[in-house]
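Ticket reopened. Same input as before:
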Amino acid sequence: MNDDNALFDSVLTDYFHAASPSDFFAETLETRLAAAHLEAYVNLPMSRRSSVRLRLAVIGVVIALGLALALIGPERVWAAFQQFWQRYIPGIGLFEETNALSLGKPVARTEAGVTFEVQEFVATQEDTRMRIVIRGLPLQGMPEVPHISPEAIIVERLDGKRLRWNTAFYGRVWPPCEAAECPELEEEPTDYGLGYILEALPPDTESVYVIWNVNGLVPGSEWSDRWVLEIPLSPLVETEASGFEQLIYSPEAVLSIDDMRLSIKNVVQASDRTVLDVTWSMPRLEAVAQASEMALIDDQGRRYTLLPGAMDLDEVSPDPIAIATEPSGSRRHLRNERWTFEPVAPDAITVTLQIGTMYPRADAEGSFAFDLPAQPQEGDFVPIDQTFEVAGGVLRVASVRFVSGTVVIDSRDAPPTSRKDQLLVEVELDVMEQPPDGRYESIILEAGWSGPSWIYPDPISSESSGIMVTRLVFDPDRIWSNHVQIHFGEVTIYREGPWTLSWDVPGR
Amino acid sequence: MKRGKNHGLEDHTSSDDELAIRARGDPSAFGLLYRRYLDRVYCYVFSKTADPAIAEELTSSIFMDVLEGLHRYNPRGTFAAWLFTIAQRRCADFHRSSPPLPLLVEALPTFEGQPEDEMVRKDLFLRLEGILTSLSEEELNMLRLRYAADLSHAAIGQIIGKSEAATKMALSRLIRRLRALWEIDDE
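Engineering reply: fixed in the latest deploy. New output:
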């Protein structure tokens, strides 16, 4: 290689590596991804994993936990909940109301059918919280609702200083549903919701600007267009519209279920809802449980059911998958959740939390191999007859068969919700022995020869066992040998309760 | 030269596919994949956008897409190809909705060295950019995948739909052509 070639190669390499992400960006994004990971994979039962994108959209979604908030640690944030002067606002969460400023009513701008609305804005001594919705973005010709990143919205003081955000939620949301017929969850939502926790404002702030860098998303707009809303701030009115005072307390109640513990950290009893902040403590991450059929019951037998709802800005702890060390030295995984129920009656003296069913999860180890038919086609059948100990029970892999089924193509190159028929591999499982105290709910099967990743079939319920089992795509292009393997992935167990936990309502 | 920083501890013992499988239930495994690929994704996106703010926005979107698609990723030893296929699509979405982009030199961060070194570096980059403007978008993309994303020939081939051998041949020819243009430019 001559000197000129060496120089050229060096310049070429340097040119493409001359830029790198800032440490702040790298750390902030990593924290956001960790929180989003928790929401997408850890909190989700296996049977719903195929709709992670939808799930993310439903709840308003991506949680960004920033460096500053992470640095101060969960103890200080949770400790803040113990303050006496607290207030709860749906969507905003719990905050200390002393000297808090807020937006009296939503402020919006509408143009070309698109509405940009700041719905809530609360500034406390600790931080500033804001909820935004963008409606009416054009959908025609787009495979999905356009992506709006949290960086596209800026909060600016009147002196020009921009507020740095620590936490941001963003994602597609449905419009408020007050009619009897609300959209099915499987339909794609069309609005875009964003929520922010930003740095605190000076206490004498009278207004701020909220700026949306439109980036060409509004029909007829220029790439550089900015929509600016002025947000007037005034002292938070310390009254409840219904006249029912909020009651916020920490019952410190703990429920033990096998080796898992559920503790209730905070309770908010408001006129339109009852909010519980709970913490799961588990011996290992894989044992993360999903609870369902939850309800509150008061001392007069009145029952209050769980409400679906948008996520509050403070809903996830700064350290969502914290690890705690027990006095014995053993380590436990902690997971914080917020559950919202119908409002408990003001005259209730005691409240009981009831959990109907639980879905603990476990890794399922083991694999089995079989020889492929010469030219696999629908109806081909391969007997297996092997047994495996899985999560304390015993499963028998009876057979593998080839079927024709519909798969979803989740590729940006394909039209939305594309489907096609494909040769699939189904595994028939028999339950020889159910796990202790429960039964098999679902199981993930994996194989390196199945794919590609953006084509996936729905799982099926095994005829003989009733277990939901993933199916595998048979793709001849990925077959290297006619002797192929299938691995067990993760198993979910169904356990029936009920489990109950009671506490007294203070002052009643 | 300002090379990519190592944002956090690395795990050199696990393959991408092992991490991708573990990452479905273990956020720390996803964190390792993220740290392994952040600089490469950012460099690739920056080379296509020439704007640090947009590069950060697109990089965020790409990793969110990866996170969302992780449960459907089938381990085949091609995680990098899968990741950069997503990156390529994200960048294509951006280019469909934005004005033509400037070249990179003016957008690059300042070199952490002597001012005279910075001038030399800028001159060399301008000279290179003059040559790169003669390339097709397809050729430029191959260079970005090779030099900004640090991908193997096999991975690049999977992204652009060519065999490993054909990709190697095409890149080799391209580099030879660029070297020749570089020498002519020097004269």
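Chain A is about 10% helix and 45% strand. Chain A has three domains: 23-72+98-235, 247-354, 363-494. Please confirm and we'll close it.
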